[in-house]
Design goal:
The protein has one domain. It contains seven helices and no strands. The longest helix is centred in the C-terminal third of the chain and has 29 residues. The protein is globular and about 60 Å long. The chain is mostly helical. Helix 2 crosses helix 4.
Length: 154
């Protein structure tokens, strides 16, 4: 059964990558053309995003009524619903990176696999940012759980 999960993961990723290429999401100039409202705006990616949102909404509606995945594994959906500073800050950072580079994570991986050097640089920076975030989170958790120092007790 484990191999079936791996095959389905591979096929889903392959389908996603092909869809990104067909939609033009792996072309940074197309993405930047969509985000540039002051220049020659390219609205075609709005249709791609709308389609993705519709598919995602349907998938979450179906998944919300299930307790198991289609392959029998436990289904774990996100439970957080609040909009906080971390969510807004992360969304702003994501949007700035998308606007500056013309890539978001999925298309960057597809473009990197296709040999685009700019995508490789983006993916390296993305992984470094993820590692820095994990380090900061662990450090904050460790500092929070650490007993007070003798200076703090005095």
């Amino acid at each position: 059964m484990r191999w079936m999960n791996r095959v389905s993961e591979f096929l889903a990723g392959l389908l996603f990558g092909i869809g990104l290429m067909l939609a033009g999401m792996t072309d940074p100039s197309k993405v930047i053309g969509f985000l540039d409202l002051a220049g020659p705006w390219d609205p075609s990616l709005a249709l791609v995003m709308g389609g993705a949102i519709a598919v995602g909404a349907c998938a979450f509606a179906v998944a919300g009524k299930r307790s198991r995945t289609l392959l029998g594994g436990a289904l774990q959906l996100p439970v957080a619903r609040q909009i906080d500073r971390r969510l807004v800050g992360g969304a702003l950072l994501f949007g700035m990176g998308w606007g500056l580079a013309g890539f978001c994570p999925g298309p960057a991986l597809v473009s990197m696999a296709a040999g685009q050097p700019k995508a490789l640089l983006f993916v390296v920076a993305m992984v470094m940012g993820m590692a820095l975030f994990e380090w900061a989170e662990r450090r904050a958790l460790h500092t929070k759980d650490a007993p007070p120092s003798t200076d703090e007790l005095a």
